[in-house]
Amino acid sequence: MTSAAPSALRYRLAVLSRTLAAVGGGYVLTTLATMVAARFLPMGRADAVMTATMLSFAVFTCAVIWVFAARSAWRAWCGLAVPALALALLAWFGRVLP
């Protein structure tokens, strides 16, 4: 085994981590954003759901771009986790408060 092997393995694991963040984390972030948008958009329920669903495609695309543009996989995960946590709190408070 050469000295380049650990470096190549680390690179491949970083790409795997980013891919999982893009697919899984992007899905969670998009779902939460859609829930919050559908709840708080000032229009009829059906229109709010359709608008939020259409916006979800842009949110997922931006999440994937963010994951692969971040400096490190750690920043990519944190960049998805922080807004996801904020959206989860908004979704929870949206259900609790009238």
Automatic annotation (TrEMBL):
The keyword S-adenosyl-L-methionine is annotated on this UniProt entry: no
One Pfam entry name: DUF3649
Keywords: Membrane, Transmembrane, Transmembrane helix
UniProt xrefs under InterPro entries: DUF3649, MFS_dom
Gene Ontology MF annotations: transmembrane transporter activity
Domain Major facilitator superfamily (MFS) profile: from-to ranges: 1-98
Domain of life: Bacteria
Membrane-crossing segments per the record: 20-41, 48-68, 74-93
Keyword Transmembrane helix: yes
Name this polypeptide is given: Iron transporter
